[in-house]
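User: I'm writing a tutorial on reading structure tokens. Could you give me a worked example: one chain, its sequence, then its tokens, then a sentence or two explaining what the tokens reveal?
Assistant: Sure. Here is the example chain.
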Amino acid sequence: MQALASPTNVRTSTTCGALLRELEQIWNDIGESEAEKDQMLMELERECLEVYRRKVNEAGNTKARLHQSVMAKEAEVAALMAALGELGFHSQTHMEKRSTSLKEQLASITPLAEDLRLKKEERLKQFAEIRAQIEKINGEISGYNHHINIMVGSLTLEEQDLSLRNLNECQTHLRNLQKEKSERLNKVLGYVNEVHTLCGVLGLDFGKTVSEVHPSLHGTSLEQSTNISNSTLEGLEHAVLKLKTERKARILKLKNIGASLLELWNLMDTPKEDKSKFLGVTYFLGTSESEVTEPGVLSTEMIEEASAELERLSKLKASRMKELVMKKRSEFEEICRITHIEPDPSTAAEKSNALIDSGLVDPSELLANIEAQITKANEEAVNRKEIMDKIDRWLSAREEENWLEEYNQDENRYSAGRGAHINLKRAERARVTINKIPAIVDNLINRTLAWEKEKRMSFLYDGVSLVSILEDYKEARQQKEEEKKRYRDQKKLQDLLLTEKEAMYGSKPSPKRSSSFRKPNGYRANGNGSMTPTPRRNSVGGATPELLTPRSYSGRQNGYFKEMRRLSTAPLNFVAISKEDTMSYASVCGSELGSPRR
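And here are its predicted structure tokens:
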């Protein structure tokens, strides 16, 4: 009975004690024996134990289920945290488990598990999106669709690492792929733009060209993205290379056509209005490939039109070849005349006409030969330029010398007429120039000899050696100086005899000089008062005849004489002496010789 009264709850103990006292009273009233009372109490105690045992078992089962639930939640949390990479939380929950009941533990871990479950689902979505983008970009780069791989990847994410570290790695990988995609896309767009430009220049269909590489490059569908695979890049690169090769070939073809057109235009003096349509073809002669960007400028239509024009001009050239040959020959002879070079007689006009009429020579070859001669003559003119400039200076000095000689023969040169002061100033300048002629000639000879030594050939002036011309000129000039000296001596002797005669017989007026003394001396008054020399003839009464050098004779034989008159020495008729002066001089001499006899 004392064991039955040992419940901790006071209310329960009071109730059980009261019930036992009431039961004892009832038993007493009934008259139950002590043995029966003890037996009935033992049964009652046994029934109570069974009730307690059942309750204990039920409580044990409840505890076991709670413990199992807590363990399952902890295992789930541990798995979620391991998957999410959040370590260090398990030790904290283990410490809390020692001081709290199972229900409290379950109540505290259940929200954590829910949060981790939601976090896992969110993380799974992130991984799924990243993996989907990665697979999509990989598919675009490789050129294949990976929808199946995306589904499989999303289904197997449960078994994969969902940590932030792995997420960051996936995001980094995605960014790298996006960067590669952007670079590939820019590269594709660059190739496409280059193809578009080249197709415009060549006059080709852009859509057809890029569609052959990949339809997405010229597609209008919004669902179809631009293909950036390796095969597309290689195809575009090959297309660009092919178009550039075609552009180079067409430019080269148009350059050849343009050069031929320019040559034919120059040969046949084509009018400007006929050339205007095809002047664009000649634009390529001085243009690089990268500068050709105008649409349609290299189209097949343009090339065909230029080729047709070239063929037309070639046929026209064939019909006018004889005229062109004569024109080129005239051009060659004019260059030779200006540079004083003997033209090649193998392509002379008469000979060329005969060869063309006979059909023995192709006019094109003859024309090419003359053009080669023109090129050679121009090169030779450049090589001779320095010496030719010195020759021009020498000839200019000789012209001044001839002018001064004729000016000195004019009796009226000191008159106060209009323009006399201009001639006096020119005479002073001419004297300075004439004094430089010997140095000019010597310098020209030395330079010519140096040129001949360097070139290992003679310097010919209209077919005659320039050195021999200059040597002849120096010799003739020396003879001229000697003639001047002899004339001055004769003049002094004449003046001396006249002085002696006047002293012996008295002064006697000399016969009046006739007006014939004033012979035409090559001067005439021009508008500004200067005296212009005109060609003079050698008079019979001249002081000295014209000296002829060996080159003068050779010039008469080979057509050289006309120009050699400029280079030959001037007539040595320094001061014209009239017949009256000659007679006066003879009479004086005669009188002197006969005076002793008187």
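What the tokens reveal: The first helix runs from residue 10 to 30. The two ends are 224 Å apart (CA to CA).
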